[in-house]
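Can anyone check this?
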Amino acid sequence: MVKLNQIEEPPPKNDAGEFLTPFEWLGGEHRVQALVTRFYDLMDLEPGYAALRAAHGSSLDNARQRLFWFLCGWLGGPQHYVERFGHPRLRARHLPFKIGLAERDQWVACMAQAMQEVAVPEALQVRLKKSFFETADWMRNTPG
């Protein structure tokens, strides 16, 4: 458990002595793809993510591709999503979907499980869980 006042360890550095972006720290596109694949596989497999899965319609193919594109750029890698669609406008793009506490919590839990299962470095998981929670909480558009 990370305490709120605990100082996070800095990210690793590259050969030039520069801090790695989260994208580089994770391992690049193939590792982002592995994370996204596991995230959506878990959403399909785990009953605890049923409300989250229901919000995605019958096929996850479009969501898988868009999350991969988005996460690459959000983590500091190639801006695939922005190149295709412009600014992500996350909240606006998600307004048609009911996002309450259950959906937020299931999304964060599913991503945390996916990060654990694809062996995202622990220190990076801590940072990403915090950012994912803050983003998911900001996306809520339905009370409760």
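Reply from J.R.: I decoded it. The first helix runs from residue 22 to 26.
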